[in-house]
Give the backbone structure.
Amino acid sequence: MPEHHEYLIRNLFAAYLANDRQQVSAVLADEFRFTSPFDDDLDKATYFERCWKDTGWIARHDIERIFVRGDEAFVTYLCLATDGRSFRNTEFFTFAGGKVRRIEVYFGAARQDGRFLPQPRERPAQLPPE
């Protein structure tokens, strides 16, 4: 089963890059949920409504590693944009019934020329000032 999950992940990234919404939808379970720093627990319809955009700005995804354990997997990838920008993310996948049941995205820092770009150090709004 781990090989099947890795296959689904790689196909999902390829379909996203090809802007093939039908293929992406076919890989996602009906009860699919999506969470990122910008979106909390979106259902499949809302995911496509809010998050699906033309992927023409992406030059390629370089999948750096995939770790599969049972019905869960972590994927770390470098995304390269057509304008030269890049960033690295990690995603946590959960599978059920041969499909992707949940994706949780953890955004990484922007990169340039193979190095991370410094990010501003802002205190989260919920924390009191020092």
